[in-house]
Amino acid sequence: MFRDARSYFNSLTRNSEAFSQIASTLKDSIFLTDEELYSVICSHISKEYSVKSPSQLSAQQKIDTARQMHFGYNASNQQLRRMLRLDLSILEELFP
């Protein structure tokens, strides 16, 4: 469900993956907001691992998902820490 009208409207009018491709073309450093990134992560893990939330992933699956989001969507370490509940030191070791 949606938290408020703004999140509902954003989900209707924004295509997160298309915006990330545009940002990549423009060499932009941050592609997605936390809400958009969470939506992309949920979609990815649903397809890849057949689970519904990041909390259901194993440690290795979280790291693999973090790599995919970091390199494919330019997710920051802080975003990945919040979304996947990974320790920041692990993320800084993976993506210095």
Description of the molecule:
This protein is mostly helical and 96 residues long. It is 68% helix and 0% strand. The chain is built from six helices and no strands. The mean pLDDT is 84.
Number of strands: 0
Order of helices and strands: HHHHHH
Q: Report how far apart the termini are.
A: 36 Å
For the largest beta-sheet, the strand count, sense and barrel status come to: none
Give start-end ranges of low-pLDDT stretches: none
Global structural class: mainly alpha
* Integer average pLDDT: 84
Q: Based on CA inertia axes, which overall geometry fits? A: globular
Strand content: under 5%
Oligomeric state of the chains present here: single chain
Q: Can you count the helices? A: 6
Rg is: 13 Å
Share of helix among residues?
55-70%
List the helices and strands and how they pair.
Layout: H1 5-13, H2 16-25, H3 34-49, H4 59-73, H5 77-84, H6 88-94
Helix pairs in contact: 3-4
